[in-house]
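One such shown below:

_____
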Amino acid sequence: MKIESKLLEKFVTKASLNGTIMAINLDFQEDKLRSSVRCPSNVNLTITEMKNDAFTDYEPIGEIFIKNTDMFIKYLKTFIGEIVLEKTEDYILKIYNKNRTGHIILGSELVCDNVWREELPKVDTTSEITLNKVDMKSVFTDVDLTKTMEIKINKTLENIEFEVGHIGESDSFITRLDIKTDGIGKTKIGNSFESFYKSIEGEFTLKIGTNTPILLEEKTDKIDFICYIAPMVGESDE
């Protein structure tokens, strides 16, 4: 198989939430590459798909398992341009071009026991908002500055707010985006949202309810990416 190294890197980055989900599957099906995994704590679920025409040469070799996505992403960054993928043995993936060759030891299904093989979860969302990565920059700057692990999201009919920190208990900031859409929603989520933010390229859709998982979707010309993030345990702030 042949594909641009940067494109495969983007796929693995999304499927693994920027390397935070350590083990993922890569299922080379007849018409597409698909990955569907949850994190060990069941907070996140990602479904990532790329049509086979994204490859300059494609072979449906079936399912393989990457046991350390953070390292695999770093390996892919060392290649420039088009690469060839070849499964030389049951447990070895050969990656090469004219300048460089790598042999990656694959995991087994026992190692990657977090593959999601069921129907997509039904989530009771009440509002849908289209956002862009640039809209969210200040939110995650606030996360880094305050060292907080949670973000409160409040969607009204007039806008959507992202609150970082606790008023009266710590430094806190609210980023408010004046986006008018039907429906309201409110939830509190952890740092998985930042991992999603680091995985995407531009425009995405956020679907929200009240204290239910949020559903995030990004579609580019090559990759379809869906991410579920469960709310943090405990009562939401009034």
Notes: Helices lie at 5-15, 69-77, 137-146, 192-199. The mean pLDDT is 94.
